[in-house]
Amino acid sequence: MKNIFIRILFLILVLSSSFVLAFLAGDTSNGIDLWNSITLKSWFIIFGIQVVVFLPSFIFKTEHYFDLTGGLTFISILIFLGYSLISNNNFSSFSKLIPLFLVGCWAVRLSSFLFLRIKRSGKDLRFDEIKKSFLRFMAAWILQGLWVFMCMLPVITMISSNESTNLKFTIIGIFLWVIGWLVEVISDVQKTRFNSKSENKGKFVNIGLWSVSRHPNYFGELVLWLGITLIAFPTFLGFQYLSCLTPIFVYLLLNKISGVNLLEDIADKRWGDNQNYQEYKKSTPIFFPKIFKK
User: Fold this and answer.
1) What 8-state DSSP symbol labels residue 290?
2) At residue 101, does pLDDT exceed 90?
3) What does the pLDDT average to over 81-85?
4) pTM here?
5) Tens of pLDDT along 56-81?
6) What is the mean pLDDT of residues 172-184?
7) CA gap 65, 70 in Å, rounded
8) Contacts of 54 (CB under 8 A, 6+ apart)
9) Alpha helices, DSSP H, located in the chain
10) Can you give the residue ranges of every domain in the chain?
11) Nearest CA to 96 among 47, 158, 157, 34?
């Protein structure tokens, strides 16, 4: 009973805190009423999609559409923001279209990659136990909604703002995004090719970018969202600077909640007694790449 209460409290806390953040960092400060607020509408779209897809997923006890739904949520909110920009004739800066394009490219690539990966493997080990519990499984979907909302917050704030972007910030932001995207894509490709070879069955990946970081794909994701936040930064005013929390949130999510920590536990169970893996852990950073290796 205590666990049920804690999980319900957790869901309420996530939804309420993100709603308050949407209100504070949103366009209501510009005199926009709640019903016409781009930020609040975005919040409802993001979490609404999670709930709608979660219900049949729980009924059929499947996680196959979890990652795909995340990508589709990003794309849905991008379409909504693009429409809002056009309908409001808010073209104070052409570069406001750039983050929409960048995030769209990232979302299509990542969601399709993850969806095809789970189709090949048949399941996602992270969901073996939690998909049996209504509240635990729902918490995963709500966390995915929080992930989408927090990642998109700088872009949502930028679209709803009347301020213009800055060319220097845009150029640096695009550069960081490209670097982060390339690191994420290359590391995913390297791991996929490594695991596809029969002689590597049951082995851990330690080649290419995986030789300088145990989770280079997650590091790449942090860098690209830092780039997106930087592009949007000049358009912030007042409470809108709360949108700068995005890179911090991404780092904490990937390392403490739903990424590195879970995969490290799985790896320790698989190769904890493997001497080569122990040496790999000692010589290779868990997240930030070790650029210069001895």
Assistant:
1) -
2) yes
3) 90
4) 0.91
5) 999 998 888 898 899 999 999 999 99
6) 97
7) 9
8) 137, 138, 141
9) 2-24, 38-59, 66-87, 97-121, 134-160, 167-196, 216-232, 245-252, 260-271, 275-283
10) 2-30+37-283
11) 158
